[in-house]
Automatic annotation (TrEMBL):
Gene3D superfamilies cross-referenced by the UniProt entry: NAD(P)-binding Rossmann-like Domain, Vaccinia Virus protein VP39
Annotated ranges, domain C-methyltransferase: 300-402
Lineage of the species this protein comes from: Bacteria, Pseudomonadati, Verrucomicrobiota, Opitutia, Puniceicoccales
Pfam families, per database record: Methyltransf_14, Methyltransf_23
Record protein name field: Methyltransferase domain-containing protein
Single GO molecular function: methyltransferase activity
Keywords, sorted A to Z: Methyltransferase, Transferase
InterPro entries noted in UniProt: MeTrfase_14, SAM-dependent_MTases_sf
Gene Ontology BP, a term: methylation
Length: 413
């Protein structure tokens, strides 16, 4: 395994940090000037996956405001007051979901399918925003020839794979300094939602591909249509400055000369999976899910009232449990937990947070300062209720609790 820690000298401002024209009403996706605000939360942590060493550090971590805007031209949703300069992406970030068997199984199947469907056997994959490198390693294990991963949060000692000699990692953000990198596939999973100038980013990706028309793009990211429809406010947080539907993502691809090859919802319809290639100059037929602009607009207009109802319902339920002397913990110490706790302003209603990722144990949730503990702590703490931050893990978590002889009420969000 090769790890490059020495960063190239920045020739100009990184596209990850740009805010084109500093005009908040300009859509970063289609670049029209018609963004409409519809949801606002003030004073939330600017990071939700950084490890907080003490309760005080967590409670006093820098905060920022979030104001979601909707673009009527392309259906894109973004934080209109986002400030990328507050972020500190580094090896202290703990974004990995790989400790969950449910998530790992999904990721493995996706890696295998992409290698098979796009004939990546023996070929090179560049992953932008590779995190701890697990997925890139899976793609090589499933048949890809070489993998190049880019992420300032990559930690070499965390990756144990028999294909390490076929992997290289650059501990840096992707920007114009790295458009010389050559690959047969460019993979970008759960990264584009962290990038504000999405159109500028796609221009760089197109520059990276150059005159190689067979290069395939493989992207995966959260679907905001579900978030709007369910008023899933726990899926809205500062680090996610960009929110896509299937349609707005496909429109971004087409705007920059890529034909979508697949456009699907996966992982219980939580994630959008899209693949594309440089177009041949001829218009390609639209895929199911591209014409969603009116339906997204409708859900956006309903969101504020749905959120009000959700907030009142959760606060009422959790306050009642507290008043009845019930011990309630929250399972899942990632970004969803941070948003859930801070948006609702929860303190004593939640005793602590549980997470299966051992790198989070003994740390604290930014914003509220709740402690993060191992599931094993529940053997002695014995909660009455477990608020589960993602329903897709209901079977997995239920089995783990049952295996410890525990039977609390599980309340999925």
């Amino acid at each position: 395994m090769t790890v490059i820690t020495e960063k190239l000298e920045a020739g100009s401002q990184s596209a990850l940090l740009e805010n084109p024209g500093n005009t908040k009403s300009v859509c970063p996706n289609c670049e029209s000037a018609k963004m409409e605000p519809f949801y606002e939360v003030k004073g939330i942590p600017v990071h939700s996956v950084l490890l907080m060493p003490t309760r005080d550090h967590a409670a006093n971590y820098p905060k920022g405001d979030l104001k979601l805007g909707f673009c009527p031209c392309c259906g894109f949703v973004s934080n209109m007051v986002f400030d990328p300069k507050v972020h500190e992406y580094s090896t202290s970030c703990e974004e990995s979901q790989g400790f969950s068997p449910t998530f790992s199984s999904f990721a493995r199947k996706l890696a295998r399918r992409w290698v098979e469907d796009y004939d990546l056997h023996g070929k090179t994959v560049l992953e932008i925003g590779c995190g701890k490198g697990e997925f890139l390693a899976m793609m090589v294990e499933e048949g890809a020839g070489e993998g190049i991963g880019m992420d300032p949060a990559f930690v070499p000692e965390r990756l144990d794979t028999p294909v390490s000699s076929h992997l290289a990692f650059i501990q840096d953000l992707y920007d114009e300094r790295y458009t010389h990198l050559s690959a047969d596939a460019i993979c970008c999973r759960h990264t584009l939602e962290h990038i504000s100038p999405t159109s500028s980013f796609m221009r760089m990706v197109r520059k990276t591909i150059g005159d190689r028309p067979d290069t395939v793009l493989l992207f995966e990211l959260p679907d905001v249509y579900r978030v709007l429809k369910e008023a899933a406010f726990w899926d809205i947080y500062y680090e996610h400055c960009s929110y896509f539907t299937t349609g707005s993502l496909a429109r971004l691809f087409r705007k920059h000369g890529f034909d979508p090859l697949e456009l699907e919802l996966e992982y219980d319809d939580q994630y959008i999976v899209i693949a594309g290639r440089p177009n041949s100059g001829k218009p390609s037929p639209k895929l199911a899910g591209e014409d969603d602009l009116e339906s997204v607009r409708l859900e956006m207009r309903r969101f504020a009232e749905r959120f009000r109802i959700q907030k009142e319902s959760w606060l009422g339920r959790l306050n009642e449990l507290r008043a009845d002397g019930k011990r309630t913990v929250l399972w899942g110490g990632g970004s969803k937990a941070v948003s859930f706790l801070t948006t609702l302003g929860l303190t004593e209603q939640i005793d602590f947070v549980v997470d299966i990722n051992p790198h989070k144990h003994g740390k604290f949730v930014p914003g509220t300062g709740h402690a993060v503990k191992s599931p094993e702590a529940l053997r002695t703490e014995k909660p009455d209720c477990v608020v589960l931050m993602n329903p897709i893990y209901l079977k997995e978590v239920g089995a783990q609790l049952s295996g410890m002889g525990l039977s609390p009420d599980i309340i999925p969000v």
